[in-house]
Design goal:
Length: 383
Amino acid sequence: MNKSGIDRLPSNATCRLMKLPLISLITAALMTPATICAQQAQRLSATKANDYGLVYSLPRTMLSVTLEAEITVKKPGEFYRYAPKYLNVSNPITKESHSVRLLSAAISSYGVQDTEETFSIQFKSGSPVYVTLDEAGLPLAINTEEVAERDVVSIPEAMKAKPTPLETPAAKQVISEEMLQSQSTAKRAELAAQAIFAIRQTRSDLITGQADNIPPDGKSLQLMLDNLQAQEEALTAMFLGTTSVSTQVESFIVNPDALVDNDKARIPVARLSAIDGIVDSDDMSGSPVYLDLSTISHGEMPVNEKGQTLPFPKNGVPYRIPGELQATVLYDGDIYASRKLPASQLGIVYGLAPNSFTDKKAPIYVIYDPTTGAILRQGPAQR
């Protein structure tokens, strides 16, 4: 974590949640870090061995901000001063430059264990109640193995820069012995220009059939033409310069706790540096990328028909009634992503009566949102 409190996700972030510490003692006894990534869920039953009790922690919502940036590096060619004279080009690259721009941003959310919201729920003896926990020890469901889908966003892949014409094998082929021996830049530029026009003439002769040695088949001819093209591009780059373009993708963790005491917050997530691309928010070499957070609503306690707040059920099975936030990624005054997301930090904890899960005639099941701990669906359990 950097000085700003923003974590950068590693490149193998798929197991990020799976490596978080487990809070529940029961879960920790049954699951080890070595097996967490290998399994998606763990079923724990209320049995005599655990006095018909189940322990779990509700999730705390975290945000993941993924940034995609394009990095462009331009470098002058050795003979850029002679480009107007030999190639009639007036605007070659004359000095090295680096630039960066933000291409896209994505916002997603996930849950981590909230150590302040860990509960032990006691059920009647002999009750076949079980809870399904995810790989991080968060509740997914009770009395059912059906679980909710996770919040998944499309993440672009980073792209390495393609080799420039001067980084290809053809660049070595075009350097003649006379060019190597010459100590004069002007003379080498003249020789390079002559080589460009010679290549163009050779290619024209091959295409029109006037060459002395024409390849016997179309495939061989195309290979020769491609090689000539690569050689011309390498020689031309010596005059015009090269442009290298790559993309970088980085993800950062943001804790929206700032909204607990304030309705709005602006958090610097990262910075864009022309030299290093996406850097941490405390690296002052770049311009900031902000995440603007604002509260849309807070979770409210349920009320009866008279509008009176319902009391928390005795030994209730806890769940969260979340609030909602707006998250917006801003860079240089422009919006790159914006989402409304439920958040546990803006919610309250309530509970279901434990006997509703153990009723012999009509027990129920519930499916939780692993990001907030909210109940997404409930109904009659199948026995």
